[in-house]
Design goal:
Blueprint: H1 19-36, E1 40-49, E2 54-66, E3 70-72, H2 78-84, H3 87-107, E4 114-119, H4 121-125, H5 129-140, E5 147-152, H6 153-158, H7 160-173, E6 176-182, H8 189-194, E7 199-202, H9 204-208, H10 214-229, E8 233-236, H11 242-250, E9 255-256, H12 267-280
Helix pairs in contact: 3-5
Bound molecules: ligand C2E and magnesium ion (3 copies).
Protein name: Diguanylate cyclase
Organism: Noviherbaspirillum denitrificans
Domain EAL: 24-278
Length: 288
């Protein structure tokens, strides 16, 4: 029966299925095929270091280049991938693709940057994740220092002890770790202090109204101060205005990511963005 079908198998229509289940099954099968047919692509969003005023990394963001629907964003398929267990295959593909791209950028002589890869809760708990990551590094010859893994605050808290062990392994491998969407989960200071992480990424929901909402401004500045006390770097996500940048600079935020600086780019666009921004000092435009 369909519900007994294991991973990697297709499930077929059974009489009695409702329309919703049928639609879901279709989606599920087409996502499975998408991975096999190489329809997934990565875009990369640059991260700007506010101190050095230079691009220090890019975040890999998966998209589904659908043959009929065009570009489909992760908000429309990551959850399904999680629920069906397909996230493991998808996540493995993303890790390999990101490392391979990094290798190619390095071959093209681009100044060294870091690539950040999002790791889903299920991947983190899978028990295979450290193996998959080290394979991606080995196969592409990428140094562990060039890779960062982003783990959401809520996924860490789902199983703190097990996550902790996995994070320690990553740390031993020399890989950087960041907490994504910080502020949306429920971690405490004492838990944070115990985690071998390097960076906090403040969720864009706090950054959005920073300049109008006094509460958000307090949350952001207090988070940055606290993170620095714990020797963590801070990235502000979703920066869209100069006013936000000025506020973040006053709070000594380390890095920004957001549409003001740049939308997620194709791999090729990243190359020209990096070359031209270095040549013309584009980054410094935001600093006035
Ligand atoms: P995230 O990891 O927090 O990634 C940042 C998201 O914010 C991206 O959306 C990015 O395009 C968007 N963003 C960047 N700057 C701005 C801005 O200034 N304003 C606004 N409104 N949005 C901005 P995207 O690419 O749609 O990804 C959404 C989420 O999907 C990601 O959130 C991440 O949780 C997940 N995701 C993306 N790629 C992967 C992946 O390869 N694996 C896994 N497990 N999850 C992924
Ligand atoms: Mg992320
Ligand atoms: Mg985020
Ligand atoms: Mg997110």
């Amino acid at each position: 029966a369909a519900k007994d079908a294991g991973q990697g198998m297709f499930r077929f229509y059974e009489p009695g299925m409702n329309e919703h289940a049928l639609a879901r099954l279709n989606q599920e099968n087409s996502l499975r095929l998408a991975i096999e047919r190489d329809e997934l692509v990565l875009h990369y969003q640059p991260r700007l270091d506010l101190w050095r005023q230079t691009i220090v990394g890019v975040e890999a963001l998966v998209r589904w280049d659908h043959p009929h629907k065009g570009m489909v964003y992760p908000g429309n398929f990551i959850e399904l991938a999680e629920e069906t267990g397909m996230i493991e295959a998808l996540g493995e593909w993303v890790l390999h693709a990101a490392c391979k791209q990094m290798q190619s950028w390095q071959e093209h002589g681009l100044a060294p940057i870091k690539v950040s890869v999002n790791i889903s809760p299920l991947q983190l708990q899978s028990g295979r994740i450290t193996h998959i990551v080290s394979q991606a590094l080995e196969k592409t010859g990428i140094a562990p220092e060039c890779l960062e893994l982003e783990i959401t605050e809520s996924s860490l808290m789902q199983n703190l002890e097990a996550s902790m062990r996995t994070l320690m392994e990553f740390q031993e491998m020399g890989i950087s770790l960041s907490i994504d969407d910080f502020g949306t989960g429920y971690s405490s200071l004492s838990q944070l202090k115990r985690l071998p992480i390097d960076t906090l990424k403040i969720d864009k929901s706090f950054v959005r109204d920073l300049t109008e909402d006094a509460d958000d401004a307090t949350i952001v500045s207090a988070t940055i101060a606290m993170a620095h006390q714990l020797h963590l770097r801070v990235v502000a996500e979703g920066v869209v205005s100069f006013e936000q940048i000025r506020f973040l600079q006053r709070c000594q935020c380390d890095e920004i990511q957001g549409f003001l600086l740049c939308q997620p780019l194709t791999a090729q666009e990243v190359e020209s963005f990096l070359r031209t921004s270095r040549l013309r000092g584009i980054e410094c435009r935001w600093m006035q």
